[in-house]
Design goal:
This protein is of the alpha/beta class. The protein has one domain: Thiolase/Chalcone synthase (Peroxisomal Thiolase, Chain A, domain 1). It is built from eleven helices and 17 strands. It has helices at 22-29, 76-87, 89-99, 115-128, 144-153, 168-181, 198-206, 265-278, 296-310, 320-323, 330-342; strands at residues 7-16, 19-20, 43-47, 53-57, 104-109, 159-162, 187-194, 227-228, 230-237, 244-252, 287-289, 315-317, 350-351, 369-370, 376-377, 383-392, 396-405. Strands 1, 2, 5, 6, 7, 9, 10, 11, 12, 14, 16 and 17 form a twelve-stranded mixed β-sheet that branches. The radius of gyration is 20 Å and the shape is globular. The two termini are 23 Å apart.
Length: 409
């Protein structure tokens, strides 16, 4: 790919149960003392309508209220979003000065948006016969986070929301790249955000997908997912920087409303599309961040797909035990973790994102190589090429590849 056609991820803001901000989260991900038994980063338990007490992963700290002039969009989701927007605000202001706000787009993703506000308002209406004075319907619309970001950052370019369950923010990055390639924008603020709410938690419980304790992807003891909340927002542009958005692939196999295709055919289509866009082969990838939810069906189909395309020796891991499944934010957050790993470059190696689990292999799954704490990755040729995958409800699949070139003296 010619240099002027390349797309870069210039900055990143993020927050999740590991903490707030790049440095805090990076320190947690790559801690030499990390272990599955000690993994207690902001783990809380909440009671579902079924009576079960389950692990959830909330954003650490107290979320600051959003005040004038955009108080009508003061929701937990937008409060979490503001944490990431504040982290990249200087970079955004520089981009506005360079390109003009009309040449900057915003593409965000969410699943819950302001669902909690809608739920609470409906309960109030049932009890009193009137809507609460504080309730504002646009709070619960899927576009609420994007609308807030437009106002908060003063952006005048294209702005829209993508919501395809847990592939949403991965697909948002693919969409942002298309805006740049089509010369519709010179920079795009892109990512995803979600917050916890009772309706979401109990919805996943009704599907019998929630684990009682910490999720343990690909283990024979896996029981399902932990739901988490978080945000990751990138500034994407053609302005060269260390980390390149090399390619993205999407597919929709529509196999089943909630179950993935057993052999991962749709996932394979997305992965191959990402490789083709990046002009890479499976042998060029040095690490894969797996979707790895800890559910029986997902881990089976994903491990089959990965072993078929990449073999069983490529370093892989799931980061769901760190942060839970963050739904509409998951694709961007996990791509953000790749970005953090690539920023740790010491020329010869970079740290691998460790696979946290109980170590109990499921002999019915292909024996993938799961990374360990302290493990490091080596470049292939002159590049690190890292992949992150999200394979979700309705057969909506996305695969992303980030690349960093190694410069030798």
């Amino acid at each position: 790919m010619k240099e002027h056609n390349k797309i870069y991820l210039n900055d990143l803001g993020l927050a999740c149960s590991l903490g707030i901000g790049k440095q805090v989260i990076s320190d947690a991900l790559f801690s030499p003392t990390l272990s599955f038994e000690k993994e207690t980063h902001n783990v809380t338990r909440e009671t579902l309508t079924s009576g079960r007490h389950v692990v959830v992963k909330r954003v650490a700290g107290i979320l600051e209220a959003i005040t004038s002039p955009v108080e009508k969009v003061d929701t937990p989701t937008n409060r979490i979003l503001k944490l990431a927007l504040d982290e990249i605000k200087t970079t955004v202001e520089n981009a506005k000065a360079t390109y003009g706000s009309h040449r900057i787009g915003i593409i965000l993703s969410t699943s819950t948006s302001g669902m909690e506000e809608g739920q609470n308002a409906f309960i109030h209406y049932q009890q009193t016969g009137r809507w609460p004075d504080s309730y504002c319907y646009p709070q619960q619309e899927l576009h609420s986070p994007t609308g807030f970001a437009v106002q908060y950052l003063g952006i005048d370019g294209p702005a829209y929301t993508i919501s395809t369950a847990c592939s949403s923010s991965g697909k948002a990055l693919c969409s942002a790249a298309r805006l740049l390639k089509a010369n519709i924008c010179d920079a795009v603020i892109v990512g995803g955000v979600d917050s916890l709410c009772d309706l979401t938690l109990n919805g996943f419980e009704s599907l019998e997908l929630i684990a009682q304790d910490l999720c343990t992807p690909f283990s024979r003891n896996r029981q399902g997912i932990n739901i988490g909340e978080g945000v990751a927002i990138f500034l994407m542009s053609r302005q060269p920087s260390d980390i390149e958005y090399a390619g993205g692939g999407e597919s929709s196999d529509a196999y089943h409303i909630s179950s993935p295709a057993p052999n991962g055919e749709g996932a394979e289509t997305a992965i191959k599309a990402a490789l083709d866009q990046a002009n890479l082969s499976p042998n060029d990838i040095c690490y894969i961040n797996l979707h790895g939810t800890g559910t029986s069906a997902n881990d089976l189909c994903e491990s089959r797909c990965i072993s078929r395309l990449f073999g069983t020796t490529i370093p892989t891991s799931s980061t769901k035990a760190f942060i839970g499944h963050t739904l509409g934010a998951a694709g961007a957050l996990e791509a953000g973790f790749l970005w953090l790993s690539l920023q740790q470059d010491h020329q010869a190696t970079i740290p691998a994102l460790p696979h946290l689990w109980d170590g109990e292999r499921d002999l019915n799954l292909p024996p993938l190589h799961f990374t360990t704490v302290g493990e490091r990755l080596k470049p292939i040729g002159s590049h690190y090429c890292l992949m992150s995958n999200s394979f979700v409800f309705g057969g909506s699949n996305v695969s992303l590849i980030l690349r960093k070139e190694i410069f030798h003296d």
